[in-house]
Amino acid sequence: MNIEEADSAAALIAAADHVGHFHASASPRGLIGKDQVKWQEVLAVFKAKNDQRDIVIESFTGDNEVLAKATSIWRNRYEEPEQLSVEGSRFLRKT
Fold first, then answer.
1. Which has the closest alpha carbon to 86: 33, 47, 40?
2. Closest listed residue to residue 59, CA positions, set 20, 91, 13
3. Quick one: which of 55, 61, 50 has its CA closest to 93?
4. pLDDT tens-digit profile of 36-85?
5. Reduced to 3 DSSP states, what percent helix, strand and coil does the chain have, rounded to the nearest 5?
6. Among 4, 31, 60, 73, which is least packed, fewest CB within 10 Å?
7. Domain residue spans in the chain?
């Protein structure tokens, strides 16, 4: 959505009846909250609908050579995989 939609929150509202699950991914595929996604607006859509579904944190790693080549990853976006999950979960809960 960050690439294809001008307003991610508006896109979620328009497609709300068709959203089965949500993958949270930082715009540069790194740490959520340290990117240009307007997370407060996006997450407000779920909160306003009292949506209790899980949000999955999605990222990519340069550790997998095939994936790195396919997705053009040429540098690490975080130090350790645990950082991605711990900091991402903390940010999503707080936001």
1. 33
2. 91
3. 55
4. 899 999 999 989 988 888 899 987 777 788 888 887 887 777 888 788 88
5. 40, 5, 50
6. 4
7. 8-94
